[in-house]
Amino acid sequence: MAWIALLLAGLLEIVWATAMKYSHGFTRLTPSVITLTAMVASFALLALAMRSLPLGTAYTIWTGIGAVGAFIVGIVALGEAVTPMRIGAAVLIVSGIVLMKLSSSH
């Protein structure tokens, strides 16, 4: 259950980061509300996951899912640059997520 909560928390991090971009500095109501709602839900699910998962593992995986997800949304939806260095950085983040998961005893 903790891993499912953590995955959902990470996916909601992608939602709030994307909505924040569309909020234009919290000047647009709907994306601002989506941002704040997704943030609260993401933090709540992260807190739930941390009840049984180690802090370092949970936090690293949560931020990794959000970072790589936001990177992908940026490329696909916002036309952000795809460069070898950015791809390499995303690969390193995913590698860190996998290693954290493998190192967890839960």
TrEMBL record:
<keyword id="KW-1003">Cell membrane</keyword>
<feature type="transmembrane region" description="Helical">
    <location>
        <begin position="85"/>
        <end position="102"/>
    </location>
</feature>
<keyword id="KW-0812">Transmembrane</keyword>
<dbReference type="InterPro" id="IPR037185">
    <property type="entry name" value="EmrE-like"/>
</dbReference>
<dbReference type="Pfam" id="PF00893">
    <property type="entry name" value="Multi_Drug_Res"/>
</dbReference>
<dbReference type="GO" id="GO:1990961">
    <property type="term" value="P:xenobiotic detoxification by transmembrane export across the plasma membrane"/>
</dbReference>
<dbReference type="GO" id="GO:0022857">
    <property type="term" value="F:transmembrane transporter activity"/>
</dbReference>
<dbReference type="GO" id="GO:0005886">
    <property type="term" value="C:plasma membrane"/>
</dbReference>
<protein>
    <recommendedName>
        <fullName>Guanidinium exporter</fullName>
    </recommendedName>
</protein>
<dbReference type="InterPro" id="IPR045324">
    <property type="entry name" value="Small_multidrug_res"/>
</dbReference>
<keyword id="KW-0472">Membrane</keyword>
<dbReference type="InterPro" id="IPR000390">
    <property type="entry name" value="Small_drug/metabolite_transptr"/>
</dbReference>
<comment type="similarity">
    <text>Belongs to the drug/metabolite transporter (DMT) superfamily. Small multidrug resistance (SMR) (TC 2.A.7.1) family. Gdx/SugE subfamily.</text>
</comment>
<keyword id="KW-0813">Transport</keyword>
<keyword id="KW-1133">Transmembrane helix</keyword>
<feature type="transmembrane region" description="Helical">
    <location>
        <begin position="57"/>
        <end position="79"/>
    </location>
</feature>
<feature type="transmembrane region" description="Helical">
    <location>
        <begin position="33"/>
        <end position="50"/>
    </location>
</feature>
